[in-house]
Every structure is written in structure tokens, then in C-alpha cells.
Amino acid sequence: MASQINQQLQHWLPRRLATPVTATLALVVSISGVMMFFHLGEGAVKTAHEWLGMAFVLFMLVHLLSNWGALSNHFRQGVARSGAAAVILATGLFLGSSASSESGGPELVYRALQEAPVASVAALFQVDETSLRDVLAERGIATDSARQSLSDAATKAGLSKREAVKQLVAGVDRLR
User: How far is CA 90 from CA 45, 48, 84, 97, 109, in A?
Assistant: First the structure.
């Protein structure tokens, strides 16, 4: 079944076209998203972002269907599942907080990093969980387990949650 879908997609939209268009749309939507974040050229940028974003979704779905076998193999690995879980968690935090308040932006990211388990944060930043816990300990934030949140560890260490995130980012930077 998957190979039939793949053949039909290849006929309708060959990879030699789909891949560069998908990559270009990803780049354009990323740049326009950053511009919107900094409130640059909001009217035209927002319109372009929304319409080209729809095109990106279409091409991305074609790309996913065309590469379903490889994608399935990736998600058999724990790292891929952890990364996807971290993205879903962050998305849920963004959407959940926007439903309950008007604030968002960087503060929302800080809260997501503070409340997520250290294991999810490690997966999000694509660093080894044990190494991240070691670096945090060196920076005065000892964690009892990978399930412990940064917020909980910071409170036990007598640090503010914001300072804990700063130490986290500095620690991740060192691991890369």
C-alpha cells in the first residue's frame, strides 16, 4: 500500500522537484516567522508566512508520505521519540498558556524549559542526558533523576528558575 502511494506521489510530484521546493519553503517560512517574532514588516510578511506556510504543509505531507518507511525507522529509536515528545510538550505549553492568557513569547519558552523533565530537555537540545545532568550539577543544579524538572532542581539548589534556565543554556552550549 505504501509503495503504491509512493509511486503515485512520485508521478504527481517527483522528488527532484519536491525536495528543493520543500526545503525552500521551510527556509522562507522560518525567516518570515523570525521576522514576525521581531515585528518586522508585519502585514505583508504575515500574509506571505500564512500562504507559503500552507504550501509548506502540503509539500511536507507529500515528503512525509514519500519517505514513510525511513520516517518509521527513525521513530523506532528512543531519541526520535523523545525529541518528538519534547516538541509536542513545548507546543502544548504554548497553546495551553495562550488559551489561558494573552502572554507568550520568550516567557513561555522559559516556563516550558523550567517545567519539562531533564530527560526531555536533553532530547530537545540533542545532548546526552547524563552529560547534561553532570553539567547542571557542576553549575550548582543537582538533579535527583532524569524525570525531575529544572524548576524543582533549582528550588532545591536555592536558585531562581530563570537563573536555572540560564545555567542550562550555558551548559548545553558547552556540550555542543
Answer: 25, 25, 10, 11, 8
